[in-house]
Automatic annotation (TrEMBL):
Subcellular location(s) of the protein: Membrane
Keyword terms, alphabetized: Membrane, Transmembrane, Transmembrane helix
Species the sequence originates in: Sinocyclocheilus anshuiensis
Keyword Plastid assigned: no
Membrane disposition: Multi-pass membrane protein
One annotated Gene Ontology cellular component of this protein: membrane
Superkingdom of this protein's organism: Eukaryota
Protein's name according to its UniProt entry: Transmembrane protein 255B
Chief location: membrane
Assigned protein family: Belongs to the TMEM255 family.
Record-linked Pfam families: FAM70 (PF14967)
Amino acid sequence: MHLLCDCPDAFVKRRRTALWCSVSLFGLSVLVLVVGLLSATQTDNVAVSGYYPGIILSFGAFLGIVGLNLVENRRPMLVASIIFISLGVVSCFLCAIIDGIIAAEFIDRRPLMEGRCEFYSSTSYGYDNYYTEVHCNSYGSQCKLKVKSNTCYCCDLFHCDRVDYHVQYYEFTGVRSCWDVVNLYRLLWACVALNVLGVFLGIITAAILGAFKDLVSLDSSDTNETRAFAHCF
């Protein structure tokens, strides 16, 4: 069912609003994707999921931009855009919770900021040099910790009496320095903030596109009727 808009100016204004929302959502989704990928590549052992919503939202926003510039196949394209944007909103909400929990509960940046963490790196790829054992004094106990090259480790977060169970990350592999972990912490919270913003902007964009997809301008309706009338003769 198509709703007829008898005012061309109102139709153009609604289309412009929907286009601006779609372009803004596309820009935000690209930013989410970039920040999420930067977070995921900071370390090798910290899983980051913040960039997945950027992929879904960017595709949905792109479909919305294309659909708003179509005339004949506008409605199917906008319906597909709304579906992908809705999926992106759900993924933004879930990934914001996951990354927020990782940043708040599993990463303690206090030893990092106070310089109580150490960084081990080796230029040799031999097993004896690639892996090394360090002595850690934690909670009145002394033990050995095996770390590999390019690892930032914090003995303050390593429990010698609970070797197999750790609440927080005590080592970060695949880093160039311990400062990369601080950058990871900040990027995680940036991902959380961007994903929360993506939830609200995605809901607004989906609502505007949903209201616009069944709207037909009076000029285009008259043009279609004229074409159909001319085709009969």
